[in-house]
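chain below, 154 aa
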Amino acid sequence: MLSIFNNAPTYMTVFTIYIFFLPFFFLLSILLAKRKKIKLHFISQTFLLGVTLLFILYFEIMIRIYGGFLDFAKDSFIPYSFLVSFLIFHIILSSSSLGGWIYLYISSLKAINKKNRSSFNKIKHKKIGIAIFIALTISSITGIFIYFFLFFKF
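prediction:
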């Protein structure tokens, strides 16, 4: 497998770059909603969620084909017990934020598709959306840290 940065597999580097940019893309989508461009906000969220799910699927397949965490962790400068703890925290956070994002997307889609659009609660949507943005941003940061922990060499 080709590597671009510090012996990291290319798929891991590509995924990490996407994860780095995801909060910025998400923020741009939120700005569309703030500017009352709701249709563009919805389209951008649909696109971002779809691309993110495809990236996660690609990542999960590739990590199983080319070696998993144990394979990468053995060459890390970070103690193994800390790496495992940090990875567990990251997995819980990223799974929760992704699940929340999917929930918010589906519940919003259902509310908007109802004939009575008054069932859509903008305030609740905004609060959940902000919480998801924060969780996704922290998840992205922890994912980038994992990348550096595993592949940074002095």
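The chain has five helices and no strands. Residues 24 and 41 are 14 Å apart (CA to CA).
thats it, cya
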